[in-house]
Amino acid sequence: MIQLRFTSNKTYDESFLAVCDAKIREFYEFYCSKKQGRKMPCRQDFDPMEMKEFLPSITLVDVDQETGDYCYRLVGTKEVEIRGNDPTGKRVKESFYGALLEEVEENYNYVCESRSFIYDHNNESEDHGQVIYDETLFLPLSHDNDKVNIVMLFSVQQFKSRRK
User: Fold this and answer.
1) Distance (Å, rounded) from C-alpha 91 to C-alpha 70?
2) In what order do the strands lie in the sheet with 118-122?
3) Distance between CA atoms of residues 70 and 159, nearest Å
4) CA pair distance 54, 42, nearest whole angstrom
5) Which residues is 119 bridged to in the sheet?
């Protein structure tokens, strides 16, 4: 069992399920169904055809076991739109989405070291007041059920109404 920890808006246990967006809950349950008795599922457990509704909001980040670098493998279309660019193929250090690189890397490091998830949410406006709410799940994937080789993110955002 994971140690209960709360820092800022991060949750390291399943208590977030009582308050999170329904899509976050649905994706987390989908992810857990892929474990099949293992601590973590692997990338091959996820068939894009059975998760079409989630794909625009998914990001896959490769973990380089030798260097500790994180690199964007796949960034969903909704995530690209929110960022205003497509960081696919770039290192997280070069093209991260967040306030501080240290905070972003802390999330990835925790997922890799603990081999567990983080639920992170933000109620503050970002991007010149357009994003008013952002929820993100950071989930570990492993090809050997030991080392995390991919971190999968699933995000839900709410936006301020745009005037025409």
Assistant:
1) 6
2) 6-7, 10-11, 118-122, 131-141, 150-159, 58-63, 70-75
3) 28
4) 17
5) 11, 137
Among 160, 3, 141, 162, which Cα is nearest to 59's? 141
The string of pLDDT tens digits covering residues 77-107 is 999 998 899 999 999 999 988 778 888 999 9
Phi-psi region of 6 (alpha: psi -120 to 50; beta: other; left: phi over 0): beta
Six-digit token string for 157? 């955002």
d(CA 11, CA 13): 6
The phi, psi pair for 24, rounded to 5°, reads -65, -50
Q: Are 112 and 148 in contact (CB under 8 A)?
A: yes
**C-beta separation of 130 from 122 below 8 A:** no
Amino acid in position 159: F
Nearest to 55 by CA among 19, 25, 79, 87: 79
E strand intervals along 40-144 = 58-63, 70-75, 118-122, 131-141
pTM (2 decimals)? 0.87
pLDDT digits (tens, 9 = 90+) for 117-145: 999 987 655 444 555 678 999 999 999 99
